[in-house]
Amino acid sequence: MNKENTAGKKATRVFAISLVVTLLLSILNWGVITGWGNIKITPMRVVGDNGATYTALMYVPKSATNEAPAPALLTLQGASGNARNHEEYAIEYARRGFVVISVDNFGSGDATIDYDSVGQWKTAIGDLFWDYMMGLDFVDPTRTVISGHSIGSTGTIHMAAYVNPTVAVPIDGFMGVYPSKDDMHYTGMICAITGIADSQNTIERLQPLLGLFKVDERIKTDDTELVLDKMYGSFEDGSAKVVYMTDSGHEDAMINKQGMQLQLDFVQQAMDVPNPLPGSDQTWMYKDFVGLFGMFAFAFMLMALAVALIENTAWFASIKNPIPRNIGLRGIGMGISVACAVVFPLVVLKTGAFGLTKLFQQAPVTEIFAMGRANRAFTVVIGLSLMGLLPLLLFVFTDGKKQKATLRDYGLTSEGKTGLDWMLILKSLILAVVVLFCGFAYLRWQRECFGTDFYAWYYGYKPIAWVKFVPQIKYLVIWCACFVLSSIGMNVERRLPSTGDENKDMVRQLVVNIFLNCIVIFVVVGVQWYLQHNVHFLDKTSLGTWAADITRLWGMPAGMAIGAFGNTYLYRKTGSIWPGVFLTGCLCALSCVLYGGYGYYV
Length: 602
Fold this sequence. Notes:
This protein is α/β, with parallel strands linked by helices. It has 2 domains: 239 residues, Alpha/Beta hydrolase fold, catalytic domain (Rossmann fold, 3-Layer(aba) Sandwich), CATH 3.40.50.1820; 315 residues, no CATH class. Helices cover 50% and strands 11% of the residues. It is built from 19 helices and 10 strands. The strands form 2 sheets. The protein has an 8-stranded mixed sheet, with helices on both faces. Strands 9-10 form a two-stranded antiparallel sheet. Strand 3, helix 2 and strand 4 form a beta-alpha-beta unit. The radius of gyration is 26 Å and the shape is elongated. The termini are far apart.
């Protein structure tokens, strides 16, 4: 058996194993979310009278029937993310017998932008799905909850004034609790939750809630200042209202075990539920862990598919070249490069990517790059790439100059070429398109079959609605350009001396590159998380003054680990940076943009 056939069969076997692992994690992800089939998840899509497409996810427990109508929850996301953000709520409420609808608010997720709802707290999408939910025979319209996080919390209060749910659960944000139209106010039960470390909150922002409480004539209190954790009114007459302070920051207020327990216990005191469970009985966190493992398995499956296509198809075979010479930085130069990998993320985060983070929040940039304040990862990646030019120049004028490095040594062209091999670049791009199409087709199949996505802590992989893809092209282009520099840095400039064993060399390089690419941001985000949970929101922390909002880097450590793995693995398998640049560049860009993008401008 010749060497080529052996490599092809090995690549096919690796892909097959990765596909099976990913499939098993898809099934496990579905099982954890649905209680192994006790909850049915249905993606919903409706075209409104104004032509806008509205989408949502509906979770229906088996206990909800026409003969035994269930209580229901409508949940509204904040300014970023999508309906999947609130799956933690859906899991816990559905376990207790609730029908749950989580909407793609403000044109996020698979929905199209509804310009009639921009700037409105009471949105058309909320109204549409509330009316739909109330018309279901297996829903009890006398036992209802509206919940929302961040901007969605203000929408919760406003919408509640019109539709009068049994309970409103606004979570962090409140936005001053602006009065509703026609001076309407909600007088039902309210369980408001705010994070002790939420830098967006102030006592002044929370105070209007007391005024809203006092609108209910059943509440008798002489308080002139809102008292946190104090129950106003009572469950007996349906006037219970409270603001709980939880051990959380802004983002994790909605997936915080304490906050989840408080609202679940409150709601279960406010109404009868089919399957009452203590608020402390929670399983949502297991979904996030499975989703995280699923993301890594899915990403590796795509890398394995790319290698299998290269090894087994004649047209893509020319992408594979011998690995270039190992002429990376050595000695002091390598030490400087490693030090830069540690220091540069701190500089970029401290300076807000040299002002890019702030710039990308302002018009007219927001009209082109609609990231808003939701996805700081985009500008951080740009800032890191700009900083990466410095050690690259160090290599060019030291070890690279000494070894007379060529384009081939940088992994930029094919063996025997002196200039750029545009066919190599084109084939690498087409390979990335083919692999991504197959990968996102898998995600579409996963959603259609199981109703689930791989998702963990605000970050993940989901099918791409075609209406959303075209606006993302500009992000893909810039992300891939940034990955050209980072791939050269990881695989050429900072390449380790060889041990003589290619498999061992690849494993060592993977470990080093993943570690250096994500550990610093992981630690910084972790420190900020610790400070958030141990410092009151009115106190300032040193990290809180950084120009890049660390609390909103969300899944960036996971994304950087995937990017480092993909670039390194494909480089070692093909001897070229281009497959990794295009495939992992686009994959990382899509995961960040689709989950962290501002829906308003899409």
